Amino acid sequence: MTAKPLKRVLVTGGAGQIAYNLLFRIATGEMLGFDQPLALHILELPEAMKPLEGVRMELEDCAFPLLKEVHIGSDAEELFGDVHYALLVGAKPRGPGMERGDLLKENAKIFIEQGRALNSVADPDVKVLVVGNPCNTNCLITMTNAPRIPRKNFHAMTRLDQNRAVAQLALRAHVEVSSITNMTIWGNHSSTQVPDFVNAKISGKPVLDVIKDHSWLENEFVGTVQKRGAAVIASRGKSSAASAASSAIDAIKSLVTPTPRGEWFSSGVCSDENSYGVQENLIFSFPCRSKGDGHYEIVDNIPWNTFLREKIHASERELLEERSLLEGGVS
Ligand code: NAX
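Output (structure tokens, whole complex):
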């Protein structure tokens, strides 16, 4: 049997904590399949090249049979050449006293540059997953700066939020996580995100038929999922890393494996004129499904009750505000 052609996977922020939990799992074949030969392209800032060199040594030391090449560097134009998947993890963290607008603008510079590099040298059908925060707006900037690449190839990661929501429902209902299906995260990957318990199911039944405590769902459940990232930081002293890496793998796997009939997954994708009336040209988390060919469609006609509608509109307003903060230009 002849081997499949090599797939090139780019990961940025390669010396960071998410990447350390991500690169090795990609290299085992967990993300693209256990018969898929890989090349890893890993970008870092020049000052982090030494720790990244250590990561490269460890990747080598694992002797992964599928890992055929590892390229490291700090020049995006050089490193992004012909990549098929781009996981944009590296971003500028919020410094002490930094305003949200300044954080957006600092990150915009990074994602403008990386969008342009993808546009000039990546594979024309590269699939892009933005993890670095604020990931929805960073994704919008990347997409805007890469007009050669189809808009439908850009995703912001809300899969960790979906996974957190699934886990919380399973714990409460005393069922396996695999019994929870149809879990949508609507909106922004932020504390305004909307984990949709109205349309999710537990063992095929509406959540509301199984968990009768609606106040718990509207308050504790939604609040726990929205603030889970902060709770992990408060406990661990560092932000979610292993769970974020695991969810990034799930996010790409959902694009390259067919979505089971009747099921969907959440991803931050570009809104158009048919996306639930959400303003066009926002990266907004919607329920999606895929045929497993790397592409997706938004699942339509999922009903919103008043509770969902109000919260989803608030998340949309937040994303519009993020976009407008950037419209003054990036200095
Ligand atoms: P770390 O600070 O451990 O690592 C980030 C790495 O990115 C650093 O090594 C840094 O040198 C590098 N970097 C910064 N700018 C870069 C650039 N222009 N090019 C290449 N590399 C660059 O952060 P980590 O914990 O790995 O988190 C990375 C990002 O993921 C953060 O923005 C974080 O907020 C975000 N997260 C997103 C999540 C999501 O669900 N979408 C959840 C987890 C996480 O909070």
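The longest strand covers residues 67-73.
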